[in-house]
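Anyone have tokens for Leucyl aminopeptidase family protein? Sequence:
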Amino acid sequence: MGIQIVQKRGVATEKNIKGSHLLCVLSEATSKTFPFIKELDRKLKRAHKKMASLSKEPVTIEIQDGRLLSFVVLDQKMNTFQRHTLIRKALKPLVAENPETLNIALFGDEDLKEINARAAVYVALMNSQRLPSYKKESAKKNIKSIEVFGIELKDKFAHEIAIVSGNTLTRELTMLPPNDLTPSIYRTKIKSLAKANGWKLEEFDMAKLKKMGAGAFVAVGQGSEPQDAAIVHLTYKPKQIKKNIAVIGKGICFDTGGHNLKPARYMHGMHEDMNGSAVSLGILLSATLLKLPIKIDCWLAIAQNHIGPKAYKQNDVVKSLNGTSIEIIHTDAEGRMVLADTLTLASRLKPDMMIDFATLTGSMATALGDRYSGVISNRSELSCLAVGAGSESGERIAAFPFDEDYEEDLESGIADIKQCTLEGGADHIHAARFLNRFIENNVPWLHTDLSSSNRKGGLGAALSEVNGFGVGFGIQVLKKVLQK
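Reply: yep, here.
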């Protein structure tokens, strides 16, 4: 990662803080003995505020010697999302100046200091990474060191470093423009990642998928030239294995909508339709760095949804890998098509659990906005586990129903199932019912619809609009599954 974290057990004072940028994390019970209290008091007095207001809105001040200081109060009752959000707001003016050293001073009892230290370092690391930019000016330099006062953790923030590493990979890939992340380029990048991290790599290209009978995936991939779409299978296999989990990601590098062409307003940003695959890769990287005792099979459905002579069209009937015939209703519902055959492949290895990530439906965004993402599962206990993991990770999750009568809307007069409906409605639930038809061996499955993958102004810990949502949540899911 290239950022050094220096822990200093001693309490921060005005004399031992050497850097010019300080985040001061206080608790409600903190006595007025922390550094620069006089400057903070003057600022609060001028604004007619009290110290308690810092638990709702941080305060940043520049003092006479040129140092920039941010103060925030974080109490025990706050959830992870609230904690991350307040720290993000407090850090924003500090990281905007790109200091070489960022100081974080912690106050409060030992348990609260650890909670706040982990949150503060996580948010600081998250927002000091170099992300893709094509501007003329020179690229932003990363913060070189973070100095943490008031606590010393034995694990040296290993968990936070691993999650940020995975999250950064997710954001980097998602932010690349579509001419710099075609399926061919993406597959080359994945090969490099596999080699660097010791992952086993297997590719199912279009020729192989046609021969296998993966007609749902091929229907989408055949519309692009070159036909470089593929299902990529990566495997992380540690020495000790307690669980076997499959992680699946939708990787549509650009989505025009196909024959049902999107208008410009809705096509803009469709290079981010591969975000689910990037989240899956981020989880795989974080799990590898954490050395989780889980065998992870990561399946990436990489393609583009283009328009052309070979592109699939409305009323086509195609046959999937598991033999289910599908009537095409709308070519812009391509995500569930590429995922269908990918889920079949993943389920045939009989993992203990499957979890997929996809920017799949507009109806999930309509239901939740861009602050939450939604999950749907064929096991109610997995939905509950996911909501808990979302709360613990600071990446909030809402669960939706999976009742079988929703599938009545997908009945086709000519095929086994319709791909979707034209009426819209509960399309996020329809999509889950559709995908469930392609899972074999009754594998427990959690479907994640990433409605919060991009939010203007940032979300939770992330200042960037593309926020990498799903990596922290996914790792927390894996940890909770390990505990079962």
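The chain has a mean pLDDT of 96.
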